Amino acid sequence: MIKMLHLTFVLLAFASFIGRVLLPMMRPDLVKHKAFKIAPHVIDTLLLLSGITLVVQGSWLSGNYGWIIAKIIALLIYIGLGVLVMRSEGQTRWLAFAGAIACFIYIGIVAVSKNPFFFL
Q1: CB 17 within 8 A of CB 96
Q2: Which of 34, 52, 83, 96 has its CA 20 to 30 A from that of 89?
Q3: 6-43 pLDDT, tens per residue?
Q4: What is the Rg, in whole angstroms, of the alpha carbon atoms belonging to the chain?
Q5: What would the pLDDT profile of 56-103 be if each residue is shown by its tens digit?
Q6: Closest to 39 measured CA to CA, from 3, 5, 15
Q7: 27 SS3 class
Q8: Got the DSSP string for 50-67?
Q9: What domain range includes position 50?
Q10: Alpha-carbon distance 29 to 112, whole Å?
Q11: Residues 43 and 16 in one domain
């Protein structure tokens, strides 16, 4: 049950990030609504809480936990790039956006494979 909730929050977080980037260009009037400012933070918090719950329930910290550390580092990079996306314009914004999406995909692949070096 927690895993399904976590996966749901993953999809919602991805959609909300894409929406926060594209919505100001397509429908700037919607960005001013309070729900569009609060919802992504609620989704991200629930995603993080469900992830922590999965780690604790799965006893994943008792064995090889390098993949969890890799996900946390990638998450911090994703957050940093996300902030850069929201605060910059032009080419910098789109490069940061591409980097953030790459981090998101990396986190997903590591979550499935449990291997932070899957590309080697």
Answers
A1: no
A2: 34
A3: 999 999 999 999 998 998 888 888 878 888 889 989 99
A4: 15
A5: 887 776 667 788 889 989 999 999 999 999 999 999 999 999 999 999
A6: 15
A7: coil
A8: HHHHHHHHTTTTSS--HH
A9: 1-58
A10: 38
A11: yes
